[in-house]
Amino acid sequence: MSVPSSTKQWVVTNTASNFSGLQLQDAPIPKLGDNDVLIKIHAAPLNYRDLAIARGEYPRAISLPVVPASDGSGSVIAVGPRVTQWKKGDRVLTLFNQAHQHGELNPRAGATDLGGNIDGTLRQYAVYSENGLVRAPENLDWVEASTLTCSGVTAWNALYGLQGKMLKPGEWVLVQGTGGVSLFALQFAKAAGAKVIATTSSATKVELLKKLGADHVINYKEDQDWGKTAKSFTPDGDGVDHVIEVGGPDTLGHSLNAIKYGGVISVIGFLSGFQPKESALEALFRGCILRGIMIGSRAQFGDMVRAIEANGIRPVVDEKVFGFGEVKEAYEYLAAAKHVGKVAIKVD
């Protein structure tokens, strides 16, 4: 296809609780730099972060106006003269923090986040550095592959990102709910031969969790001490090795009740707000590690892609997939917590 000169894109022009700041606009496509790649975006799912940014509730610095969303799958349309990693027709995914290539995140790389400080993926065409893209898994379609950037890499980092505490076969993992990060963590853990305890508030979601391999499922609305219950499932009641903590203040106490001495609680989400109810000293008293996760590096992304291909893992995508003209409806759907897995938007 010929190289386009303009693109339609959604823009967060200002913040509002009803997402009225989301506007569809036309924009020119910038000229390719020497190391730049032009991609045609095929799908762009949403994360809870996208809701928080559009509502003005995100706790980190952002730059408005901005094209929202960090996740995207696309095909390479054109490359700059010095690009060596990609060629026309390659299937690629976007990297959340464009400058986070390997190792730990630093403030400079953290300021290169798509959909926050750099224009994201809710547009037809985008230009990114060749180092800001990752090869898409061969076994996934455009929508499935698009879900990996934030949720997939975050789950992978939580289980494999801390040297000396990487998940081992036979260890126990506690995941919360049926959002993207939790379901990816469940799938990765089972592929590694681990035991998984999952929580949910819905009887209808129990079967999904069991189908994905959960060894135990706890309804947290019926069990007010679900952290202690999770601990009781483990050998000798010692506790779980890893917790994927996505709830924030309302769930952290339960995670602390479930963790074993030497275990890792990966703090990922803030679904219940930002005001802590537990002291960080609890990590001392319980002999565990509280580790904040800010997605992951390009190197980790590549490792995860290979694991997905080797194990035939397929992301869980909500049955309702939105069109490019239905972005506001997709935001409202995610905000209403009607979804299971990832909420995706087809850009084609």
Describe this structure in words.
The structure is a single chain. This protein is an alpha/beta fold and 348 residues long. It has 2 domains: 6-147 and 317-335, Alpha-Beta Complex (Quinone Oxidoreductase, Chain A, domain 1); 153-292, NAD(P)-binding Rossmann-like Domain (Rossmann fold). It has 11 helices and 13 strands. It has helices at 48-55, 107-110, 142-146, 148-160, 180-191, 203-211, 226-233, 249-258, 282-286, 298-311, 327-335, and strands at residues 6-12, 22-28, 36-43, 73-79, 91-94, 125-129, 133-135, 172-176, 195-200, 216-219, 240-245, 259-267, 289-292. A 6-stranded parallel sheet has the order 10-9-8-11-12-13, with helices on both faces. It has a 5-stranded antiparallel sheet with strand order 6-3-4-5-7. Strands 1-2 form a two-stranded antiparallel ribbon. Helix 5 links the parallel strand 8 (172-176) and strand 9. It is globular. The two termini are 14 Å apart.
Q: Give helix and strand order, one letter per element, not per position.
A: EEEHEEHEEHHEHEHEHEHEHEHH
N-to-C CA distance = 14 Å
* Number of H- or I-type helical stretches: 11
Low-confidence stretches: none
Major pleated sheet: 6 strands, parallel
Question: What's the helical proportion of residues?
Answer: 25-40%
Q: Per CATH, what is the topology of the largest domain?
A: Quinone Oxidoreductase, Chain A, domain 1
The CATH homologous superfamily name of the largest domain equals: Medium-chain alcohol dehydrogenases, catalytic domain
The assigned structural class equals alpha/beta
Quick one: CATH class of the largest domain? Alpha Beta
| Beta strand count | 13
Q: Shape from CA axes?
A: globular
How much of the residues is beta strand, in percent?
15-25%
Instruction: Return the domain count.
Output: 2
Mean pLDDT score, rounded? 94
CATH architecture of the largest domain: Alpha-Beta Complex
Please tell me how large the radius of gyration is.
20 Å
Oligomeric state: single chain
What is the spatial order of strands in the main beta sheet?
A: 10-9-8-11-12-13
